[in-house]
Amino acid sequence: MANLKTSEKKSKAQSMGMHTEVLTGRTQQKFFNPDEAENFYYFGTYDVDFNKRTDLDVKDMSAPEANKEIDNLMSQGYGTIVIKNPQGKHSLGVGILNKLNLIFEGSLGYFGMGSCDGPTVRINGRVGWSCAENLMAGKVVIEKNAGSCFGAAIRGGDLICKGSVGARTGIDMKGGTIIIGGDAGAFTGFMMQRGRIIILGDVGINLGDSMYDGTIFVGGSIGSYGSDAVDSELTKSDQEWLKRKLKVAEIGENFDVSKMKKIVAGKKLWNYDNLEPTEKKGAI
Amino acid sequence: MCGIAGLIHRGKSSNVGSELQGMLQALKHRGEDSTGYALYGDTDGKNFIMRFKVGENVGEGSSSVMEDVSVYDERKKIVDQYLAEMGAKVLKEERTLPYSLRYEISYDKKDLLDFSQKIESIPGVEILSMGKSLEVIKDLGNAKAVCDRYSLDKLVGTHAIGHARMATESGVDIKSAHPFWGYPFSDVSVVHNGQLTNYWNNRRALENKGMRFMSECDSELIAVYIAQKMREGASLEEGMKDSLLGLDGVFTYFVATKDSLGMAKDTMAAKPLVLYESDDLVAMGSEEIAIRSVLPQEIDTYDPFDGEVKVWQI
User: Fold this and answer.
1) CB distance from B291 to chain A under 8 Å?
2) What is the domain count for chain B?
3) Which residues contact residue B44 at a Cβ distance below 8 angstroms, ignoring those fewer than 6 apart?
4) What is the pLDDT of residues B51-70, one digit of tens each?
5) Mutate to test the interface with B, among A58, A59, A61, A87 (most CBs of B within 10 A)
6) Taking CA atoms, what residue in A is nearest to B267?
7) CA A211/CA B153 separation, integer angstroms
């Protein structure tokens, strides 16, 4: 790979492999145009200072009030916000399209951190159904357990649950990485199209059912395989990647990744090799 | 979309009426067509408590047909007459609302099938619950409205289950509201969130075995299904495990008996449930906010997995 620091924008994108070459089926080659960069900056985002920190007690706030106040604090330049007393409220922290260090001192209900792009989040509690749905980029760490549909339709970023998760984790995911420290329920990776799921514990029935693409790594037992999910060879580079990812995720650092099972789609059902926006952003 | 909640105190009693009201009120956005409580109160265990209705709530939003209130009195008279004929002595009588009654009864026979069939042979009369600890109270409106109407907030007991209903496949009325009594078993009640897709097949088979259905609400099937399994000699847990195969659809449900509380989740885990478990308390609900209403401090909760059945004793 070329030296990325000295390359021009266009060559940088190509040097990072930001293009697709579909060698089976149709022939096409798509290169990312770095001039698209302007498409990835959101209107209404803020310059925040991570060293500027504040607490926000949401005990007596509704979810819209709390989310509005988070936005207000970001507009004042706060880059680290600690949310006190979330008490299982639904839809907290949704739609944050900003760099932000967000810490929840407690548990969230449904749809927490949905449709976010960029924040680094730590939840010192549990999350309900559909946590971080449609996450585009950033990192969300859950210290305890998570409900069903964890990371549904995420397109990028890292989503980490140190405990166990419910059913349909990573359903319809289109990119990014989901890491589970404990067990996962039925239909994990259902209809996933890209990205990777790592489960250190056991996983339930119908793993990877109707998956189009992407990869699932399992450390424990598998209840059953879903339609189209098959075993694949765990390569050296897979193991290196797993070690790196688990270390960054602060989870299972000493886990023996060489014994993990690798599950992929048995058929190439469609072309899901186009670059995701978050991958394109990496080249900007 | 409906909401269910339940809790069981182990080794002590608590104000379960007020606690369940808080849990169900937190779930009112999941449905407030009707709300129901199955409360297991502290009693001496000598007499039966029969909750029954002699008519429907025909207030705003109800799908029931208006009746002249005088028919309620007529029905009540026949109930009293039948009770006397069966040797049941009414020790205490409360009439909270014109259509809703609570009797404390001295009755020494164990089999409640004949008893129930006789009482419910009166058109318009339905036993909501029969037991030595259980009381099922259900009516139209949200949890607070029903709790206030029936003064449930002071009821002390060991465990309780409840339901906040959004009517989808049957009427907005008391007969379709949860919890359902596990007829004809004393002290058995059921609440359910989900849809059952083989309702009619199972219903026909159970009716052929002599079981009764009072509504066309698919959730009633669970109560009858498990009651039938228990009649055939199964334990509560065995009946619940069997239901995972016998019932088709998506569901999470709770069953309570005089001294236990159980949960079951379908094999696709399509309906939500959050559970908190400690040595002295188990609390569960469709959403964590239900549990938070009784345990506001930081706690560890989890989602039970697909096909999971759990039963706790008091």
Assistant:
1) yes
2) 1
3) none
4) 999 998 887 788 888 888 89
5) A87
6) A186
7) 50
Q: What is the CATH number of the domain that holds B174?
A: 3.60.20.10
Q: What is the CA A55 to chain-centroid distance, rounded?
A: 26
A129·B272 Cβ contact <8 A: yes
Range of the domain at B61: 3-313
Q: Is B300 on the interface with A (CB under 8 A)?
A: yes
Using the predicted structure, report yes or no on whether residue A51 has a pLDDT greater than 90: yes
Catalytic residue ranges of B: 2
d(CA B250, CA B167): 16
CATH class of A88-281: mainly beta
Identify the residue among A107, A161, A199, A221 best suited for mutation to test binding to B, counting B beta carbons within 10 A and taking the highest.
A107
C-alpha B247/C-alpha B206 separation (Å) is 13
Q: Where along chain A do its domains lie?
A: 88-281
Contact list in A for residue B268 (CB cut-off 8 A) is 167, 186-187
What would the pLDDT profile of B236-266 be if each residue is shown by its tens digit?
999 999 999 999 999 999 999 999 999 999 9
pLDDT band per the 50, 70, 90 thresholds, residue B42: very high
Burial A123-154 (b: 16+ CB within 10 A, else e): bbbbbbbbbbbbbbbbbbbbbbbbbbbbbbbb
